[in-house]
Task: structure prediction
Amino acid sequence: MRACYPGSFDPITLGHLDIIERAAPLCAHLTVAVIHNPSKTTLFTLAERQEMLTQQLSHLSNVSVDHFSGLLVDYVAQKEIRAVVRGLRDSSDAPIELQMARLNREMNSHCETLLLASAGKYSHVSSSFVREIARLGGPIEQLVTPRVAALVQQKLKSKEAS
Ligand code: PNS
Result:
């Protein structure tokens, strides 16, 4: 089965990485699909997020990185993808994830969503808190890989300088 794992990945966290590593063996191919939404401000550009993901996922032979804009169901239909993988961190993720899963299936009856329970140790991890903690000078080494932590620090420094 071909599946995709869509998201903003601004930046990829250890929680994302865990879901990808666990989902990959369940699929023939897993595409990590980065959303390109020009009306939303992100810390990293689309190209930077794609490059970061490609680096972080190079050990997974059946995983590739792509991007999409517009509706996820249109992307899924165009790429002949059968399922969307999403991680569920806790009960507060459930309402929105269920709503998206149901809406996506209503728009494309072939689009199933597989919700994977995140590992308990990553249930508090989110890209937005990684950005906020780093911006405020706190440690992010428990939340992202060392390489991603360095990229976040570097990006914040270059933003401060400009
Ligand atoms: O990492 P995120 O920000 O939680 O990912 C959310 C994402 C990209 C999966 C979601 O916003 C999405 O699918 N956007 C594409 C537009 C779309 O299809 N919207 C209708 C959802 S029911």
User: Anything to note?
Assistant: The domain at 2-161 is CATH 3.40.50.620 (Rossmann fold). The mean pLDDT is 97. The two ends are 45 Å apart (CA to CA). Residues 6-8, 35, 71-72, 100, 103-104 surround 4'-phosphopantetheine (CB under 6 Å).
